[in-house]
Amino acid sequence: MKKKIIWLIQSNQVTPVITDFLKTLQKRLEQYIDLLFMVPETSLDIIKNIKALNPISFQTATRTATDSYQAYLAKRESLDKKDFTDGLSFADTLLLDDLGGGNAQQTTLELTLPDNTCGLILQVPTPLGSSEMEERIFHSSILWAKQNKIPVLGYELLPLDTRWTLAPSLPDGIITRHYESYEHLKKQLSHNNIWLLPIYEASIFSSVSTSFNLYGVKACYHYRNEHSIPTDRTILYLPHNVAMIYEYQEMIKILQPLGDRLHLMFSIGKDQVRGAYSQREMIEITYNNELKYFASYSFHNMNNHWEMMMADTILACSACFNTQIAERNIPCIIFDPILPSMTTGNKKRVSTKEKLLQFIKETIELHQYKRELADILMMLTRIGKSDD
Predict the structure, then answer these.
(1) Residue 378 is inside which H or E element, if any?
(2) DSSP code of 248?
(3) Which of 60, 129, 145, 184 has the fewest CB atoms within 10 Å of its CB?
């Protein structure tokens, strides 16, 4: 019997692109996991928009204590004797807020645990973007999961590299979109169950993701399988141009010492010809000696720009149309010994081979922290239902 994983969705947590991606993920994992998308009754407004996911709605219940002093005592008891690093205890600060700020409310999920469920996935809220009800459902869901002895993984939609770390500390693990959040939470949280999504998946979980990102992640799944690229191999996208055959050859020579850890993606076009030779033939013939040092390489239609989302970094010999498109989503390194070094946003220009190797080594190191979402969900199936 397949394991089940619940993915809880609330209002303001999905876009058409995210919905399409989640449907792709559900289909991709259907042989191993039943991915169940559930929506609390407080977010029924999104049901129509995510009907492709076959969402299941459930009810919630809220109990209110109307006595302010009783509410204060309940909050103080739940906070135990924890203190801030400097200053008052957590409970004492409630006295500064009109004896606890009024009423204490407890929201619970009226949801029966489906058989063979091995985990819960939900978005981590932040004070600078999430509603009060989102936060209540988040806390209630974690309590429900603990009571049912299943692990909870929170994922980053809003930035988590902030001063507020209480919400991220509650799930059993955190899935981050940005290295900044990954690095920050690694230092702040007591557990090590923190993962960083690859660029192609991380870009999906954003309110401004587009079809470009969606086509990119689907292309990545396809080509990773087609070329049998292992997850620990770093990928570089080279927007090759026949006008710079020599420059790209020199750059590839510099990368040879790192080649066994790299996959090179060459962009090619039908109009990039010289005599009787296509661009692909020129690359394979001219760079024959250099390419032997690399773990793998592939060729991609230069007009399918979204395929560059598969790469950890765009590596070019000059700023071009491809680097301009990539800058919004992917780090770009331009190696040009003639022009001065510079950095602006996602784009770095370097003029020495030492600096180029340094940046590629950093890219390889960063890649080791990344984990695909499917791998993380499959890990949950191996953990199973907790007995703690």
Answers:
(1) helix 373-383
(2) H
(3) 129
Please report how the helices 353-367 and 245-255 are oriented relative to each other, as an axis angle in degrees rounded to 10.
Answer: 60
Beta-strand pair 234-238/262-268? parallel
Find the angle CA(11)-CA(17)-CA(22) to the nearest 5 degrees: 75
Note whether 221 and 28 are within 8 A (CB).
yes
220 residue type, one letter: C
Lookup: tokens for 148:
């049912």
Report how many helices (DSSP H) and strands (DSSP E) the chain contains, helices first. Answer: 15, 15
State both tokens at 143: 């309590």
pTM to 2 decimal places: 0.88
Which residues lie closer than 8 Å to 176 by C-beta, 6 or more apart?
A: 155, 156, 160, 182, 185, 194, 195, 196, 197
Residue 62 β-bridge partners: 107
pLDDT tens, residue order, the chain (388 aa): 899 999 999 999 999 999 999 999 999 999 999 999 999 999 999 999 999 999 999 999 887 755 666 767 777 777 777 777 777 777 777 665 545 454 556 788 999 999 999 999 999 999 988 888 899 999 999 999 999 999 999 999 999 999 999 899 999 999 999 999 999 999 999 888 999 999 999 999 998 999 999 999 999 999 999 999 999 999 999 999 999 999 999 999 999 999 999 999 999 998 888 888 999 999 999 999 999 999 999 999 999 999 999 999 999 999 999 899 888 889 999 999 999 999 998 899 999 999 999 999 999 999 999 999 999 999 999 875 544 4
Cβ atoms < 10 Å from Cβ of 336: 16
Point out which residues pair with 368 in neighbouring strands. none
Q: Which one-letter amino acid corresponds to residue 241? A: N
The answer to whether 304 and 219 are in contact (CB under 8 A) is yes
Give the dihedral of Cα atoms 139, 144, 148, 151; nearest 10 deg: -30
Q: Bridge-partner residues for 344, per DSSP?
A: 347
CA distance 56 to 50: 11
Cβ–Cβ contacts within 10 Å for residue 93, how many? Answer: 13
